[in-house]
Amino acid sequence: MNFDSIFNSAQEAFLFYKNLPGTEKGAFLDTMADVLESHRSEIVPLAVKESNLPEGRINGELGRTTGQIRLFANLVKEGSWVEATIDPALPDRTPLPRADIRRFLTPLGPVVVFGASNFPLAFSTAGGDTISALAAGCPVIYKAHPAHPETSRKVADCIHQAILKCGLPSALFTHVEGGIAEGQALVKHPLAKAVAFTGSHAGGMALFHLANQRENPIPVYAEMGSVNPIFTFPHKLEKENQALAKAFISSLTLGVGQFCTNPGLIFVPEAQAKAFENAVAAELKDIAVAPMLHPGIAQAYYDSIQFLESREELRWVKVADPKHLINGSTAMAEIKAADWLKDTLFQKEVFGAFAMMVVYQSEDELLEIAQHLHGQLTITVWAEAEELQNQLFLVNLLEEKCGRLLFKGVPTGVEVGYAMQHGGPFPSTTAPNSTSVGAHAIKRFARPIAFQDMPQELLPDALRDGNPLGIWRMVNGNLEK
Amino acid sequence: MNFDSIFNSAQEAFLFYKNLPGTEKGAFLDTMADVLESHRSEIVPLAVKESNLPEGRINGELGRTTGQIRLFANLVKEGSWVEATIDPALPDRTPLPRADIRRFLTPLGPVVVFGASNFPLAFSTAGGDTISALAAGCPVIYKAHPAHPETSRKVADCIHQAILKCGLPSALFTHVEGGIAEGQALVKHPLAKAVAFTGSHAGGMALFHLANQRENPIPVYAEMGSVNPIFTFPHKLEKENQALAKAFISSLTLGVGQFCTNPGLIFVPEAQAKAFENAVAAELKDIAVAPMLHPGIAQAYYDSIQFLESREELRWVKVADPKHLINGSTAMAEIKAADWLKDTLFQKEVFGAFAMMVVYQSEDELLEIAQHLHGQLTITVWAEAEELQNQLFLVNLLEEKCGRLLFKGVPTGVEVGYAMQHGGPFPSTTAPNSTSVGAHAIKRFARPIAFQDMPQELLPDALRDGNPLGIWRMVNGNLEK
């Protein structure tokens, strides 16, 4: 397994591609979105077959995929994302003159992207990681997820059609199939400059440690999921018991619970617990079993549930029913907060439609919970306005534990926009200062460089006098266009 | 050695301090700069005594220190650094409404800062790392450098005077003395959220690996120095032989060569090598020996030189003369590019006034050198405008290898401004996507968080409707104020 020629070609492509104007990079991404759309009728059935996800979901996911491609296309066509910063020379400054210094974000080089099983399109071959890397100016060496090989090959074909149409080097994107050994070899290659991954904690941590032990360590942007707790308060639950139970169960069971932002943990006040449990149980009755992504995931889900069933602290509201091992059947258990606090095992993500309902007795207990809580992609607070006013300190604590804090709705259904933060403190990710969804995701694949007294004709357009790109730039500390 | 109470207090201080308005954080920093200025007559003699650096330099360094404190004070008083981004709700969007999502940068929590021996003020107790962390909203647990304990205590006193004057919690800054074991214990503490370090490669890498092996890994911003090569071209050297030799030697020997940006490597074309060597030798005659920071550094310097003297590829232009072990005596050796390319040992930094002059024969050799070169804080190109036009590909390659690329002047003397980038690809730093000098240094100590449908009264001012802080914000993808 030698990836030298792949990386050498990618590096060569990089040295050309990085200097192309944003308008050309954006046109390439737009072309890719067009090609994907025009192959919808071929892609969708493949992805449905390989993921067991319903056609409606896959159709939506393709729309989301091309939507985020166009978001990044617009971002790089507009161009201000490079954070151009200019401190002009001050030749007459005393005691020493100041040189002309200009800084912007430059792409890292070839990066390795790992596909995710639960989003065969939006977080896979032409998914957010690949696209934000290409938008930044980085060639992508893509390690296909073995759960959907045909879908992946088809999408890779579309990417190469777009590359061809735009006259770009084909090494901008390389599709690699294989297992763990291939993935490790890619991460270890000396020319790799960063790694993006969405998947399990074990997988993410293995890549993280591998990359840190390289002779030249590289960043690993691993999004490893979380349990996404919901904190509920008495008045809110009393007023909206039925609606909240419905919203919770609908979010928990969406896509058979196979989302990173799936709410696997809910904190409920003791006085309202019984009513909420009844409402939840009623909702659960209508939830049909549905096939999970692949038998391995279903097996892991039932193994985790079975393990939890041996814990006497848990009282089961609904027990999972593994009729056929590919099917995901919803499960839910109740536990006292005092017991939950005793073992961090109860914070471990069970990938699938399982939730733990933690019954708390006091606000002091809630503060203890917040302090005890591991890092999360999201935390949701369901409270009436007036009871929120008494929880400012709790909200302050919860901010430390998540990347996104919600006060309405459910954590599933991550918007792709400018303000989205999909990331969070460890162990939800290995890089809490980054996001894998939304416009800011592009920053993961760039680093700042400063040019000192560089001749105008050599400067990148983003930093030239007269602002030929018409982008936002900070000049002498002031933003201007 | 138990730092629990220090970190617990810092965490408590953090939960209060992070929510203070930028104007109050800025006022605190301004007060600190005032207190330091008012103690100049006590600080300067201590630092001179403990660093062996001349009084003029230390006086200048104190000015630089208070200057950068005021830069960060202004940055947080102005407030736009938090990158406020708002995607307002779209309740009527189909098929699904969009929630209100607002994102900004929030401080990480308590951070550990290590002082540097070569800047007893500007990169130490109240230096750039401490100040950018406090500006971001993070309490600092500061590990004093054992080379200047009295200076460090005095500056820590000034910081605490400022804390007291502003009525802030004293745990915002904690001064810790000790050795390697204490430093390691700080980095391993569960409540530590990031580490900043300026120093040796060995020291930085030890902290990097320690932090990555924590149960919850944290980022290490280690600036570990580099050899900062200068690439010279024939016409430029012919025209300015004398002036360039003078500039080079003056930069090489500034502060007895004890700068991270010290130019320890210079590439010279064969035809001009002899004349340049003569000019350099003439300059070197006037350079007096001067004491280094401390005997340990002088010892390491002479050990490295002695080791290199055993290498037959090197021809010595000036041999170091260790009359008294504390003194730094300049040394310089010449080597053929073909030999230099054979051993990466010749890229290793020798901390002190040592430079290697590498004689190249062709432009092809230069490209090979650029490819072979390790990551650097800076690279300098000395070329005439017309010969630069033939080196576009080389310049393109060099961009991949550094954080700052200069076309005039010398790499020493790092400006503290908005556009400065003091960082670079590994092994010059462990975090090429960050800078330890200049306004952007604050970003190291913050991470993004998004609030979804948060009630107005709970939102931080930076994200409220009506923009009460009057800062730059991105709303629906457009920057506005």
From TrEMBL, chains A, B:
InterPro entries: Ald_DH/histidinol_DH, Ald_DH_C, Ald_DH_N, Aldehyde_DH_dom, Aldehyde_DH_Superfamily, ALDH_KGSADH
The keyword Oxidoreductase belongs to this UniProt entry's keyword annotation: yes
Aldehyde dehydrogenase domain: residues covered: 3-386
Name of protein: Aldehyde dehydrogenase (NADP(+))
Keywords: Oxidoreductase
Domain of life of the native organism: Bacteria
UniProt GO MF annotations: oxidoreductase activity, acting on the aldehyde or oxo group of donors, NAD or NADP as acceptor
